[in-house]
Design brief:
Elements (H helix, E strand, L loop, with lengths): L7 H24 L11 H11 L9 H8 L10 H22 L37 H6 L4 H4 L2 E4 L4 E2 L14 H9 L4 E2 L1 H10 L19 E4 L6 H13 L9 E4 L3 H14 L7 E4 L5 H8 L16 E4 L1 H10 L10 E5 L1 H5 L6 H9 L45 E6 L6 H6 L6 E6 L6 H6 L9 E8 L4 H11 L5 E4 L3 H21 L10 E4 L5 H12 L5 E4 L14 E4 L6 H8 L9 E8 L3 H10 L6 E4 L3 H23 L1
Parallel strand pairs: 1-10, 4-9, 4-10, 5-7, 5-8, 6-7, 8-9, 11-16, 11-17, 12-14, 12-15, 13-14, 15-16
Antiparallel strand pairs: 2-3
The structure holds adenosine-5'-triphosphate (ATP).
Catalytic activity: ATP + H2O = ADP + phosphate + H(+)
Function: RNA helicase.
Keywords: ATP-binding, Helicase, Hydrolase, Nucleotide-binding, RNA-binding
Length: about 650
């Protein structure tokens, strides 16, 4: 049934028709002989009788009555009309009444419109409300920026390709801000231009104003700095240069610069850089890694252990160390003090901040801050008052009278954080208690959303790096590796495995393979390719010896775990092979970053077992890096020439393990 509201004119016309119809009906009833009804009919029967007898041929009932007739369902026509019709009629009458009560104008508009011209108007109904719906999820980029450190949001984006030439001796500094001595030293070392990260940081850390280069800045403390720059972009020199320049102005030796690194190997490497750049400047450089006995290190670091000194005592101007040993000295070496620190460098910052060893960071930060509360040194204590740092005057046994009421002395220690994969974790950054930090992000394209890249863990790779991935069955993975070495010339290579155990196994297999192949080709010993393991199982001296041989190209392939995947700088590494896929993107970035350093070209190869391919691809896609990787296949045909040696080597390996 179609219920439609007619136009007002139509309604009016129909109402009149109905009135005429009812009038005539009334008239007919009056004229009817009363005896026609045998008994007194009920009102219902009356209506019914009327509706049945009314059907006179020349009379056309109004439309709503037609509706009543027409609306009776077909199935009901077979049934006796007497039973059904009153019911039906009553229903419609009731409907009419309801409508009338609700809206009198609509009384007559219930009709069947054979050809509806206007769209049917809805019946009055309850107001409808929109269905409950969840708002659209925010995009990944929006989420990544949530809760980000405001200083990181305002980071300065630096173009990685910018270079600044160092002028030859005697000329102006060429905008570098470096002293003549340092420039000369750099030129002697073969460094003729500064890289982007160095050019950007030098003016910030080495201001032109000599007052801002002072060793103590208690009333105008320096801003802290966080740097994210690709691997091999020269971050080490970016902090070594300003430290050497500022610390070499000192008269008395105090511990002025502290560099914290995650591994001993990196400590040794950074020490070499300090020694090379600071040569002839009279700086004393020390290391603390646990490589020597604790008492030996104590005697290297502190001049006087027997007398308690308010200002501490130090034999070194610059200390490079691992966090564990640093905490040992803070807690166990008398007069080892960080109050004179002008620089605190945390290199490979994301790795070190992930390390909560003895809550090392909190302890170090406490040691650089002036103590609050009463003087801790009793009166009459034999002291050297001049040795106390300005911010630590409260340590003195007499009242510290400020020159101005609002005068406050702060620690002069400037924190410098560096990494190729800098953390964006607000919690970790907050733990550093950075002072008005300034962020620098060095990347290839300055128009790229640098902050977003850091926020979404999309790291910048060196422009000179070429990356490849080879998907293979796990059973032929060693063979594919040998193919890379013997057929594709992948030597001077660092090969990363997942553990010290896999390193040892691969080295053995390589030895068996190389010997078998060499013997088959005539046994020329000079044709040998030497592979060695570099792992935490080796003693420090063995590790050093192996690294030196690799640097001297006596070893062509160094197989290792992730122990040296960070920071290690070996200039001639032309290939990096990830024999086992890295577990996360940060590891991947640091591994491949062992090649293509300082603008040199380099290749990275990742061997991916078929079952790992999906995971590895997803990891790269999430970092928006998949498109930059060349996918390669090595077929059976290419592997065939090496298969015979490989099978022999496998047999020997099994035998050696069973023995
Ligand atoms: N201005 C320069 N000119 C030439 N070589 C440079 C310059 N600055 C640094 N280098 C060289 O570049 C290489 C890489 O430098 P460095 O080890 O500091 O890189 P990095 O950014 O710290 O890398 P990673 O993140 O892997 O630790 C080193 O061999 C270094 O001597």
């Amino acid at each position: 049934m179609v219920l439609a509201a007619a136009s007002p004119e139509k309604n009016k016309e129909k109402t009149k028709a109905k009135q005429r119809y009812l009038k005539r009906k009334k008239q007919r009833r009056k004229n009817k002989p009363k005896a026609a009804a045998g008994s007194a009919p009920s009102s219902e029967d009356e209506d019914d009788a009327a509706s049945v007898s009314e059907a006179e041929p020349d009379e056309e009932p109004p439309m709503d009555d037609v509706l009543i007739e027409a609306d009776a369902p077909e199935v009901e026509e077979d049934k006796p009309r007497k039973e059904k019709r009153p019911k039906k009629r009553r229903k419609v009458v009731d409907e009419e009444k309801d409508v009338e009560m609700a809206e009198p104008e609509v009384q007559d508009v219930i009709m069947v419109d054979p050809e509806p011209t206007a769209p049917p108007a809805p019946l009055p109904s309850l107001p409808s409300f929109p269905l409950p719906a969840l708002p659209d999820a925010p995009s990944k980029s929006v989420l990544a920026l949530q809760g980000l450190d405001q200083a990181l949001v305002g980071a300065e984006i630096v173009d990685a390709t910018g270079l600044l030439p160092i002028p030859p001796d005697g000329e102006e500094d060429g905008g570098t801000g470096l002293s003549e001595k340092t420039r000369k030293r750099l030129l002697d070392l073969g460094i003729v231009e500064l890289f982007a990260v160095q050019t950007t940081l030098l003016p910030f850390l080495l201001p032109r104003n000599p007052l801002q280069r002072a060793l103590y800045l208690p009333f105008d403390p320096p801003r802290d700095v966080c740097v994210s720059a690709p691997t091999g972009s020269g971050k080490t020199l970016a902090y070594v240069l300003p430290i050497v320049e500022i610390v070499s102005t000192r008269i008395v030796t105090r511990l002025r610069a502290l560099v914290v690194l995650p591994t001993r190997d990196l400590v040794t490497q950074v020490r070499e850089t300090f020694e090379a750049v600071g040569k002839g400047r009279g700086l004393k450089i020390g290391t603390a890694t646990g490589q020597h006995s604790f008492s030996h290190e104590q005697s290297q670091l502190v001049a006087d252990k027997s007398t308690r000194l308010a200002g501490g005592s130090s034999r070194v101007d610059i200390l490079i160390c691992t966090p564990g040993r640093l905490i040992d000295h803070l807690n166990g070496t008398p007069n080892f003090s960080l109050q004179h620190l002008r620089f605190l460098v945390i290199d490979e910052a994301d790795r070190l901040l992930a390390q909560s060893f003895q809550d090392w960071l909190a302890q170090v930060l406490t040691a650089t801050r002036p103590p609050s509360g009463e003087p801790s040194i009793p009166c009459g204590f034999p002291q050297h008052h001049d040795a106390v740092a300005p911010a630590f005057r409260t340590l003195l046994p007499y009242a510290d009278i400020p020159s101005f009421v609002a005068e406050r002395r702060e620690s002069s220690c400037q924190k410098l954080l560096f990494s190729a994969t800098l953390t964006r974790d607000p919690g970790k950054l907050a733990a550093l208690e950075l002072r008005d930090p300034k962020y620098f992000i060095v990347q290839e394209k300055t128009d790229a959303p640098g902050v977003l890249d850091v926020a979404m863990d999309r790291f910048t790779m060196p422009a000179t790096l070429t990356e490849h991935m080879l998907v293979c069955e796990s059973s032929v993975k060693p063979l594919v590796f040998f193919h890379l070495v013997y057929e594709c010339g992948v030597t001077n290579a660092l090969v990363f495995t997942k553990s010290a155990e896999s390193t040892a196994r691969l080295v053995r297999l390589f030895d068996f393979f190389d010997t078998a192949r060499r013997m088959a080709l005539g046994g020329d010993p000079s044709a040998a390719i030497i592979a060695r393991a570099y792992s935490s199982d080796l003693s420090p001296s063995e590790r050093k010896s192996i690294l030196d041989k690799f640097k001297a190209k006596e070893i062509q392939i160094l197989i290792c775990s992730d122990l040296i995947s960070r920071g290690i700088d070996i200039s001639h590494v032309s290939h990096v092979v990830s024999y086992d896929v890295p577990v996360d993107m940060r590891k991947y970035v640091h591994r491949v970053g062992r090649t293509a350093r300082a603008g040199r070209a380099g290749d990275a190869w990742t061997l991916v077992e078929e079952q790992e391919a999906r995971y590895f691809k997803t990891m790269l896609k999430q970092a928006d890096h998949f498109a930059k990787i060349k996918r390669m296949n090595v077929g059976e045909k290419e592997l065939a020439p090496l298969t015979v040696y490989y099978e022999g080597a496998l047999g020997q390996l099994k035998e050696s393990y069973s023995r």
